[in-house]
Description:
By secondary structure, the chain is an alpha/beta fold. The chain has helices spanning 12-17, 28-45, 59-69, 84-95, 113-123, 143-152, 172-175, 218-225, 236-252, 254-274, 300-306, 330-344, and strands spanning 2-3, 51-56, 77-81, 100-104, 127-131, 133-134, 139-140, 156-160, 179-183, 194-199, 288-292, 309-310, 312-313, 319-323. Bound molecules: pyridoxal-5'-phosphate (PLP).
Amino acid sequence: MKLYVFPGVIEKEILDIGSHQIPYMRTNDFSLIVKECERLLLSFIGCKEGRSIIYTASGTGAMDAVVTNYVATKKKAFIISGGTFGKRWHDLCEYYECVNVVYEVSFAKDVNYIDLENRIAEERPDVFLCQHHETSTGQLFDIKRIASICRKFGISLVVDVISSFLADPFDMDELGVDICLTSSQKGLNIPPGLSILFFSKRLMEYSYFLHKSFYFDFDENLKNLLRGQTPYSPATSLFLQLHERLKRIACIGVSHVIEDVRKKAIYFRKLCAENNWIIPAENPSNCITGFFVNNNGDKVFELLLKQNIFIMPGAIKSFFRVSHLGVQSNTDLDDLVSAIKKIENQ
Ligand SMILES: *Cc1c(COP(=O)(O)O)cnc(C)c1O
């Protein structure tokens, strides 16, 4: 099986953890593992003296939690919507009846930051929701510019870094971000099933979180995690895989992990250029390469599947996405390109 998706190819030692008997979790040993996970995660994202919640849920679970506990305490949310995931912030706000303004960004385009600032000056929202990387197109937004606009207007900034964490540089404290979130199957490249929220030190003094979501309640989860325990049964094996993966990242160093992803992205983009496959993103994230094939775009996905090769289709005809997360060599990328080329030339 050849995987260019989320998760990508998982290290064998980490996969093996999932095949072992599952230790009981209401123990001091498990608490220590959870606490170490929290400590390492916070250090990787540059959130000194902040806190984190690890939910047994996919990434959308953490987005949902942010809206019910936090966004719902605000008067007006401002949302950048550059694709599927920006739209998800909007869908969640609508679902929970939170007042929101959507700033639409065209497919794979960057934000016009001057126009954005004008809109913010008009709308005066008190919370800002965006993605660092809009995974449906491959576009990476300029989070420094977004953060500086939020700072200027005193807006609380929430960033979905689900697909940029460990793929593109990001420092939460430096940017002044209040809440970030990620999930296990993207940059961490372990099986899906965990999502992680990061709270800045400043936000820990916020005392107005709502209690509208029993399972995802911030206060209840934060209180339990102080002693390294989750209020409800955790996905124990996933926590053990997370722990092992975090220890490995700590050994390699976050900047090296990111550099490795970047090198794979650059290598693949060179191959795209050689084949005239256009990459529409104005400023692509290292996480994925989104590109258009020129021929047989309607057959590529299915014919690759038949060979046990998995890439991600896009919402637009002939547009595909290849992830650079996980274990991936240049040869793996060469092989993928020749398989696609064969289909194009059929
Ligand atoms: C993957 C992803 C999500 C969450 O999706 P789930 O399927 O719930 O894990 C949210 N935002 C972004 C930017 C993503 O890439």
